[in-house]
Amino acid sequence: MTRRSRSGRKLWDTLSKIATRNVRDAQRTVTRSAIRSAVKQGEAMSKAAQRVLSGVASPVPPPVSRGGGRWEEGSWGLGPLVQRRYRLFIPPGASASRPAPLLVLLHGCGQDSASFAACTRAAALARSAGCVVLMPEQSSQANAQRCWNWFRSPARVAAEASLLMAIVEHICEHRPVRPDSVFVLGLSAGGAMALTLGLRYPDRFVAVGSHSGAAPYSASNAAQAARVMHGKGQPDLHAARLQLAGRSPPPLLLLHGDADPVVAFDNALASAALWQQLLPQAPVPAPPRRVQRGQRRPYRVHGWSSEGRPYIRLVRIEGLAHAWSGGPSSQAFSDPSGPDALRIAWPFFMQCLAARAMPRRARKLAGLA
């Protein structure tokens, strides 16, 4: 073999080795990329499967206590076969000798108590306001989307309301809670159920509230519920009066976005009208006012009083869709650009508590009349 041919063969061998190495490196890169893609796809599929199986749109780990106070978990109900889980936050300082007011928060469809705790930032409110927060949790067996069943038959609605009330009474009896200072506020389906509780148990709640919820006693099946949510139904005034049995409903707070495509704002108007019709004398309206804090969405406040006490407060949040106002962006059904819903609700609840304890003349002097 000539020198030239040996030199050419050596060059060919070198090029072949380089080509082989490049192919091997490329194959490794492709393989690693495929593995990463498969892992990511598997994680996404796992999260999607988790959402489907749990009925929770934005699953989160159980809440942990930071900055004082403690989270507890439990279950209670109408017996061993009819129970619901709940989460309870007890703020620093609450004890048997120093019981605190109780705020019951009812989540919406596609949520559980953990995701709703993250959505509402309930622990932060509880620490600053010094209240206990109770968050019952709907089971996926009772409703595949974890909705509270405000739109079922009267018997089914009554059973679920009784179940929730049993949990509330259990907490009032066994935790550092003032049983005469109980409030309930819910989102979407939880809002409709909160108002249902207020009409069924008006003596047990200082005030009730609904955030983006449908009008109560307005549907007895899914088809009717869909119409109501689109603003094409009205509450059953007769049914509400039967539940009250001559009692007055507790004061009402309504928070609702005027751009809600899921539950039309008309539901808030219908609920306010229902509460007005349930009094023997028409409540007195107050001049509306517009509020905006910083860069958050502005909102309009409409109020009515009865016998010198705050009776209805309707908060219309401009541009808000079907979402908890002021919640974190990481959660479904949450809008961080809105005003903080709990920071709006709690002062109204405290005003109702103070007004109830005052004689009528004192309420006038305090400017609550």
Automatic annotation (TrEMBL):
Looking up SUPFAM superfamilies in the UniProt record yields: alpha/beta-Hydrolases (SSF53474)
Give the highest taxon in the source lineage: Bacteria
Q: Which Pfam families match?
A: Esterase_PHB (PF10503)
Q: Which UniProt keywords apply?
A: Hydrolase, Signal
What PANTHER family does the entry give?
Answer: BLL1128 PROTEIN, UNNAMED PRODUCT-RELATED
Name of the protein this chain belongs to: PHB depolymerase family esterase
